[in-house]
Amino acid sequence: MHTAWEEAGWERLGDGVARRRMPGWDETIGVVAGSAGVLIIDTGATLRDGADLRRAIRGVLGRDVTHVALTHPHFDHVMGTAAFSGVQVFGAAGLDELLRREQDGLRRDAVGHGVDPVAAAEAADILVSPHHLVHGELTLDLGDRQVLLANVGPGHTAHDLAVLVPGRHGSPEIVFCGDLVEESGAPSVGPDALPHQWPAALDRLLALGGEDARYVPGHGAVVDARFVRDQRAALAARFGTAPG
Protein backbone atom coordinates (compact mmCIF):
# COMPACT_ATOMS: atom_id res chain seq x y z
CA MET A 1 0.00 0.00 0.00
CA HIS A 2 1.45 3.38 -1.04
CA THR A 3 1.76 6.16 1.51
CA ALA A 4 0.84 9.76 0.80
CA TRP A 5 4.54 10.50 0.29
CA GLU A 6 4.94 7.78 -2.31
CA GLU A 7 1.77 8.82 -4.12
CA ALA A 8 3.25 12.32 -4.37
CA GLY A 9 6.50 10.99 -5.88
CA TRP A 10 8.66 10.87 -2.75
CA GLU A 11 10.52 7.94 -1.19
CA ARG A 12 9.36 7.34 2.38
CA LEU A 13 12.33 6.61 4.66
CA GLY A 14 10.60 6.41 8.03
CA ASP A 15 7.84 7.89 10.17
CA GLY A 16 7.55 11.49 8.98
CA VAL A 17 10.77 11.26 6.94
CA ALA A 18 10.96 11.21 3.15
CA ARG A 19 13.18 12.28 0.29
CA ARG A 20 12.95 13.08 -3.40
CA ARG A 21 15.63 12.58 -6.04
CA MET A 22 15.30 15.60 -8.28
CA PRO A 23 15.33 15.39 -12.08
CA GLY A 24 18.34 16.77 -13.89
CA TRP A 25 21.15 16.50 -11.33
CA ASP A 26 19.67 13.73 -9.14
CA GLU A 27 20.23 15.77 -5.99
CA THR A 28 18.40 14.50 -2.93
CA ILE A 29 15.88 16.70 -1.12
CA GLY A 30 14.90 15.51 2.36
CA VAL A 31 11.93 16.33 4.57
CA VAL A 32 11.37 15.65 8.27
CA ALA A 33 7.96 16.36 9.79
CA GLY A 34 7.26 16.87 13.49
CA SER A 35 4.13 17.97 15.29
CA ALA A 36 5.25 21.60 15.44
CA GLY A 37 7.62 22.00 12.52
CA VAL A 38 8.72 20.73 9.11
CA LEU A 39 12.35 20.66 8.00
CA ILE A 40 13.46 20.53 4.37
CA ILE A 41 17.02 19.48 3.63
CA ASP A 42 18.32 21.36 0.56
CA THR A 43 16.09 23.27 -1.84
CA GLY A 44 16.95 22.42 -5.46
CA ALA A 45 18.62 24.28 -8.31
CA THR A 46 16.09 27.03 -9.10
CA LEU A 47 13.30 29.06 -7.55
CA ARG A 48 10.85 26.92 -9.49
CA ASP A 49 12.33 23.81 -7.86
CA GLY A 50 11.92 25.40 -4.45
CA ALA A 51 8.34 26.46 -5.13
CA ASP A 52 7.44 23.00 -6.47
CA LEU A 53 8.94 21.37 -3.39
CA ARG A 54 7.10 23.70 -1.05
CA ARG A 55 3.77 22.95 -2.75
CA ALA A 56 4.44 19.22 -2.77
CA ILE A 57 5.23 19.11 0.95
CA ARG A 58 2.18 21.20 1.78
CA GLY A 59 0.10 18.84 -0.35
CA VAL A 60 1.16 15.82 1.71
CA LEU A 61 1.29 17.37 5.17
CA GLY A 62 -1.30 20.13 4.91
CA ARG A 63 1.17 22.64 6.36
CA ASP A 64 4.25 24.58 5.37
CA VAL A 65 7.97 24.07 5.81
CA THR A 66 9.31 25.93 8.88
CA HIS A 67 13.06 25.16 8.68
CA VAL A 68 15.63 24.72 5.92
CA ALA A 69 19.00 22.96 6.34
CA LEU A 70 21.56 23.46 3.58
CA THR A 71 24.09 20.63 3.36
CA HIS A 72 26.68 22.53 1.27
CA PRO A 73 27.01 25.50 -1.08
CA HIS A 74 26.50 24.00 -4.54
CA PHE A 75 23.87 25.41 -6.91
CA ASP A 76 21.72 22.27 -7.09
CA HIS A 77 21.30 22.24 -3.31
CA VAL A 78 20.80 25.94 -2.42
CA MET A 79 19.35 27.96 -5.31
CA GLY A 80 15.71 27.24 -4.45
CA THR A 81 15.88 28.59 -0.91
CA ALA A 82 14.23 31.95 -1.64
CA ALA A 83 11.00 30.10 -2.46
CA PHE A 84 10.71 29.37 1.28
CA SER A 85 9.99 32.92 2.47
CA GLY A 86 9.74 33.40 6.20
CA VAL A 87 11.51 30.11 6.95
CA GLN A 88 14.50 29.75 9.28
CA VAL A 89 17.61 28.66 7.31
CA PHE A 90 20.53 26.73 8.83
CA GLY A 91 23.97 26.00 7.44
CA ALA A 92 27.52 25.20 8.46
CA ALA A 93 29.60 28.02 9.93
CA GLY A 94 30.92 30.28 7.18
CA LEU A 95 28.25 29.33 4.66
CA ASP A 96 26.57 32.74 5.00
CA GLU A 97 29.68 34.66 3.97
CA LEU A 98 30.47 32.25 1.14
CA LEU A 99 26.99 32.50 -0.40
CA ARG A 100 27.07 36.29 -0.25
CA ARG A 101 30.52 36.33 -1.83
CA GLU A 102 29.90 33.68 -4.49
CA GLN A 103 26.49 34.63 -5.87
CA ASP A 104 27.86 35.19 -9.37
CA GLY A 105 29.99 32.05 -9.18
CA LEU A 106 26.93 29.99 -8.31
CA ARG A 107 25.03 31.53 -11.22
CA ARG A 108 27.84 30.69 -13.64
CA ASP A 109 28.11 27.16 -12.28
CA ALA A 110 24.36 26.63 -12.63
CA VAL A 111 24.36 27.88 -16.24
CA GLY A 112 27.41 25.76 -17.01
CA HIS A 113 25.49 22.70 -15.83
CA GLY A 114 22.45 23.49 -17.98
CA VAL A 115 20.21 25.70 -15.84
CA ASP A 116 18.36 28.29 -17.90
CA PRO A 117 20.37 31.54 -17.66
CA VAL A 118 17.34 33.64 -16.71
CA ALA A 119 16.32 31.17 -13.98
CA ALA A 120 19.91 31.02 -12.69
CA ALA A 121 20.22 34.82 -12.55
CA GLU A 122 16.85 35.15 -10.79
CA ALA A 123 17.83 32.62 -8.11
CA ALA A 124 21.31 34.11 -7.62
CA ASP A 125 19.95 37.65 -7.26
CA ILE A 126 17.84 36.69 -4.24
CA LEU A 127 20.00 33.88 -2.87
CA VAL A 128 19.27 33.34 0.82
CA SER A 129 22.14 33.00 3.29
CA PRO A 130 21.64 30.98 6.49
CA HIS A 131 20.17 32.79 9.47
CA HIS A 132 21.65 30.24 11.88
CA LEU A 133 25.19 28.85 11.67
CA VAL A 134 26.21 25.44 13.01
CA HIS A 135 29.73 25.32 14.45
CA GLY A 136 29.55 21.88 16.05
CA GLU A 137 26.12 20.40 16.61
CA LEU A 138 22.71 22.01 16.94
CA THR A 139 19.38 20.41 17.85
CA LEU A 140 16.20 21.48 16.10
CA ASP A 141 12.96 20.93 18.00
CA LEU A 142 10.15 20.06 15.60
CA GLY A 143 7.66 19.35 18.38
CA ASP A 144 7.43 15.65 19.01
CA ARG A 145 10.82 14.99 17.48
CA GLN A 146 14.28 16.49 17.58
CA VAL A 147 16.71 16.54 14.67
CA LEU A 148 20.46 17.04 15.01
CA LEU A 149 22.39 19.26 12.60
CA ALA A 150 26.13 18.47 12.62
CA ASN A 151 28.98 20.39 11.02
CA VAL A 152 31.02 17.32 10.04
CA GLY A 153 33.18 18.82 7.28
CA PRO A 154 35.27 20.04 5.67
CA GLY A 155 35.40 17.47 2.90
CA HIS A 156 33.28 17.79 -0.23
CA THR A 157 33.36 21.54 0.51
CA ALA A 158 34.51 23.71 3.40
CA HIS A 159 30.91 23.89 4.68
CA ASP A 160 29.44 20.37 4.90
CA LEU A 161 26.42 19.86 7.14
CA ALA A 162 24.85 16.48 7.98
CA VAL A 163 21.37 15.93 9.41
CA LEU A 164 20.67 13.09 11.87
CA VAL A 165 17.07 11.97 12.33
CA PRO A 166 16.85 9.67 15.37
CA GLY A 167 14.97 6.41 14.88
CA ARG A 168 11.47 5.82 16.19
CA HIS A 169 9.74 2.68 17.42
CA GLY A 170 12.79 0.53 16.71
CA SER A 171 13.51 2.02 13.28
CA PRO A 172 17.12 2.96 12.46
CA GLU A 173 18.62 6.42 12.53
CA ILE A 174 18.61 8.27 9.20
CA VAL A 175 21.55 10.47 8.21
CA PHE A 176 21.28 12.96 5.36
CA CYS A 177 24.87 13.24 4.16
CA GLY A 178 24.82 15.87 1.44
CA ASP A 179 27.52 15.23 -1.14
CA LEU A 180 29.97 13.87 1.41
CA VAL A 181 28.52 10.56 0.19
CA GLU A 182 27.44 9.81 -3.39
CA GLU A 183 26.05 6.50 -4.59
CA SER A 184 25.21 7.15 -8.24
CA GLY A 185 28.84 7.82 -9.13
CA ALA A 186 32.24 8.51 -7.65
CA PRO A 187 32.32 11.43 -5.18
CA SER A 188 32.62 14.76 -6.98
CA VAL A 189 35.97 16.31 -6.09
CA GLY A 190 35.65 19.87 -7.37
CA PRO A 191 37.93 22.88 -6.96
CA ASP A 192 36.34 23.73 -3.60
CA ALA A 193 36.80 20.22 -2.16
CA LEU A 194 39.28 19.45 0.61
CA PRO A 195 40.06 15.85 -0.34
CA HIS A 196 42.77 15.27 2.27
CA GLN A 197 40.26 16.12 5.01
CA TRP A 198 37.32 14.28 3.44
CA PRO A 199 38.04 10.83 4.98
CA ALA A 200 38.03 12.39 8.46
CA ALA A 201 34.66 13.99 7.67
CA LEU A 202 33.31 10.54 6.81
CA ASP A 203 34.68 9.23 10.11
CA ARG A 204 32.64 11.92 11.87
CA LEU A 205 29.61 11.04 9.78
CA LEU A 206 29.88 7.36 10.73
CA ALA A 207 30.31 8.25 14.40
CA LEU A 208 27.19 10.38 14.16
CA GLY A 209 24.96 7.72 12.63
CA GLY A 210 26.48 4.49 13.87
CA GLU A 211 26.64 1.07 12.31
CA ASP A 212 22.90 0.51 11.84
CA ALA A 213 21.89 3.89 10.40
CA ARG A 214 20.56 4.47 6.91
CA TYR A 215 22.77 6.98 5.10
CA VAL A 216 21.13 9.20 2.46
CA PRO A 217 23.65 10.44 -0.13
CA GLY A 218 23.43 13.77 -1.88
CA HIS A 219 23.05 11.80 -5.13
CA GLY A 220 21.93 8.20 -5.51
CA ALA A 221 20.28 5.42 -3.53
CA VAL A 222 20.20 5.10 0.26
CA VAL A 223 23.26 3.20 1.56
CA ASP A 224 24.56 1.59 4.75
CA ALA A 225 27.59 2.17 6.95
CA ARG A 226 29.67 -0.33 4.99
CA PHE A 227 29.19 1.69 1.80
CA VAL A 228 30.31 4.86 3.60
CA ARG A 229 33.38 3.09 4.97
CA ASP A 230 34.25 1.79 1.49
CA GLN A 231 33.92 5.27 0.03
CA ARG A 232 36.07 6.61 2.85
CA ALA A 233 38.76 4.03 2.08
CA ALA A 234 38.67 4.85 -1.64
CA LEU A 235 39.09 8.57 -0.96
CA ALA A 236 41.93 7.90 1.49
CA ALA A 237 43.72 5.72 -1.04
CA ARG A 238 43.18 8.22 -3.86
CA PHE A 239 44.48 11.23 -1.95
CA GLY A 240 47.10 9.59 0.23
CA THR A 241 45.47 10.04 3.61
CA ALA A 242 45.70 7.48 6.37
CA PRO A 243 43.26 4.56 6.30
CA GLY A 244 40.59 4.43 9.00
UniProtKB/TrEMBL annotation:
Coiled coil: none
InterPro entries: Metallo-B-lactamas, NDM-1-like, RibonucZ/Hydroxyglut_hydro
Domain of life the protein comes from: Bacteria
Gene3D superfamilies reported for this sequence: Ribonuclease Z/Hydroxyacylglutathione hydrolase-like
Pfam family, one: Lactamase_B
Chain ranges of the Metallo-beta-lactamase domain: 26-219
Protein name: MBL fold metallo-hydrolase
